[in-house]
Amino acid sequence: LSDFRDLKVEDLVVHVDHGIGVFVGLKRIDVGGPPPEFMALRCAGGDHPFVPAARRIHCVMSPTTLRSLLR
Fold first, then answer.
1. Collapsing DSSP states into helix, strand and coil, what is residue 46?
2. What's the whole-model pTM score?
């Protein structure tokens, strides 16, 4: 993945702190100054972290690819 903007809603991602999650979308959050973009994720255990888009994710794969790896 060359750019986080290539992510599609429902893509699976692996994050170093949050583990495997589902990409929900991009969100701008007002934290003072220009609002940075965050990746909204849905992770196991009901976690819904907002990860700064400037941070790199480690892996993106389609559900089909993940299912084939788990067989």
1. helix
2. 0.65
